[in-house]
């Protein structure tokens, strides 16, 4: 049965559900939750963890050694019950291990840990993946936190680090990459509006920056999402939805001309037998 637990220090608190090891609440102690309050009318999640793929597979299928498998967008970890293996007041580590059901979709033996740690006004999220099998294992991983938007998205701006003037957006078609790109001017910030998302998420591959800050109409910084090693960023919302997702990824969706071989997928990571890989991102809660 799914349960939730709460981490707390002198500055911030975070609540996480064992179902999907999903973050469901994040706030400064004297302020409201920064995450949006889930409403299935728009989206039935708050901050899912993406594994063993990020994004969509073409036709929701892939193949390995001539055998075809089916897996829906962003993988299955977000719909699995995780085990709590370590916990303190400021940290918790969740574990998902391969099992009979996961092998039907993904024929590999693995351990996937999600670790949350509070450090002053920062929540750090680590993804620790280990190949338990005796052959190479292809995988991707990512975060998908959704932050609350009040009033209208046009009241918000995304700030890029100083010196970043233009970023290239990789365009999606039916949730797969079309090979088209579009340059966006972000000097002084990217003013958000619904038109930006008419062609699905904004995806920036191989970002040359390590953080994004969300500010409101009063130019107050609300939060900063940061990573030293992310390989792509997704920025997403839906029409009239009261949330904005800032998604750190290590992998991304298929292209329209994919071969379908998971080992040849763009952005895929390959773990050798017994190998462990750790990636991470952080959310800074501003005062």
Entry summary:
The chain has 287 residues and is mostly beta strands. The protein has one helix spanning 100-105; strands at 4-8, 12-17, 22-28, 49-50, 61-64, 67-70, 83-87, 91-97, 110-119, 122-131, 137-139, 141-143, 146-148, 157-159, 166-173, 176-185, 190-191, 202-205, 211-215, 221-226, 232-236, 243-250, 269-271, 276-285. The chain is globular.
Describe the structure.
The protein is mainly beta. The chain has a single domain, classed as Beta-galactosidase, Chain A, domain 5, CATH 2.70.98. 2% of the residues lie in helices and 46% in strands. It contains 1 helix and 24 strands. The strands form 6 sheets. The protein has a 9-stranded antiparallel beta sheet with strand order 7-8-9-10-24-20-19-14-17, with no helix packed on it. Strands 4, 12, 13, 18, 21 and 22 form a 6-stranded antiparallel beta sheet that branches. Strand 7 and strand 8 (91-97) form a beta hairpin. The longest helix is centred in the middle third of the chain and has 6 residues, at 100-105. The protein is globular. It starts with a strand and ends with a strand.
């Amino acid at each position: 049965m799914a349960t939730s637990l709460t981490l707390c220090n002198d500055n911030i608190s975070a609540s996480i559900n064992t179902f999907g090891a999903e973050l469901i609440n994040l706030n400064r102690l004297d302020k409201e939750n920064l995450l949006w309050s889930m409403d299935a009318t728009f989206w039935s999640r708050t901050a899912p963890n993406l594994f063993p793929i990020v994004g969509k597979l073409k036709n929701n299928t892939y193949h390995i050694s001539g055998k075809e498998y089916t897996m829906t967008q962003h993988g299955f970890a977000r719909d699995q019950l995780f085990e709590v293996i370590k916990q303190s007041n400021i940290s918790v580590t969740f574990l998902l291990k391969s099992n009979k059901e996961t092998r039907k979709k993904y024929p590999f033996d693995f351990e996937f840990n999600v670790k949350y740690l509070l450090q002053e006004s920062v929540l750090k999220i680590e993804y620790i993946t280990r190949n338990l099998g005796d052959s190479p294992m292809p995988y991707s991983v990512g975060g998908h936190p959704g932050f609350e938007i009040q009033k209208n998205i046009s009241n918000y701006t995304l700030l890029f680090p100083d010196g970043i003037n233009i970023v290239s957006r990789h365009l999606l078609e039916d949730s797969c990459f079309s090979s088209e790109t579009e340059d966006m001017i972000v000097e002084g910030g990217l003013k958000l509006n619904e038109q930006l998302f008419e062609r699905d998420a904004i995806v920036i591959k191989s970002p040359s920056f390590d953080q994004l800050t969300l500010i409101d109409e009063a130019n107050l910084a609300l939060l900063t999402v940061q990573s030293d090693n992310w390989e792509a960023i997704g920025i997403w919302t839906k029409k009239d939805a009261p949330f904005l997702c800032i998604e750190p990824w290590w992998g991304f969706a298929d292209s329209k001309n994919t071969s379908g071989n998971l080992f040849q997928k763009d952005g895929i990571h390959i773990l050798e037998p017994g190998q462990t890989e750790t990636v991470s991102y952080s959310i800074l809660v501003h005062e």
